[in-house]
Amino acid sequence: MSAAFGQGKPVDYGPDDSAPTEDRPCPLCGHRMGDHAIDHSTPESILVCPTTDRLPERPIDTPLNEFGMPVEPVEDGRTRGM
Ligand SMILES: [Zn+2]
Predict the structure, then answer these.
(1) SS3 category, 31
(2) DSSP 41
(3) In a domain, 75, yes or no
(4) CA–CA separation, 52 vs 55, rounded Å?
(5) What is the pLDDT of residue 43?
(6) 3 found inside a domain
(7) Where are the residues of the annotated region Disordered (predicted)?
(8) In a domain, 10, yes or no
(9) Is 19's pLDDT higher than 80?
(10) Do 26 and 36 meet the contact criterion of CB atoms below 8 Å apart?
(11) Residue 49: how many other CB atoms lie within 10 Å
């Protein structure tokens, strides 16, 4: 008899997760995370970007499905997941 969940394999997180955190791009400004400061002076830590530049926001006119995910248009002009 063997365990029902034996033979488990480690999860493959993909090549992006092998990069050190400080070399990853900031989701707000796009600079290296290592160039950022973190303000721990308040109960909620605040990430301080090295620049006031921000990456362009995602378009908000894209239709969303019931899960809040963008709905991709299909060929006949209707939208999927509606
Ligand atoms: Zn940033």
Answers:
(1) coil
(2) S
(3) no
(4) 10
(5) 94
(6) no
(7) 1-27, 53-82
(8) no
(9) no
(10) yes
(11) 16
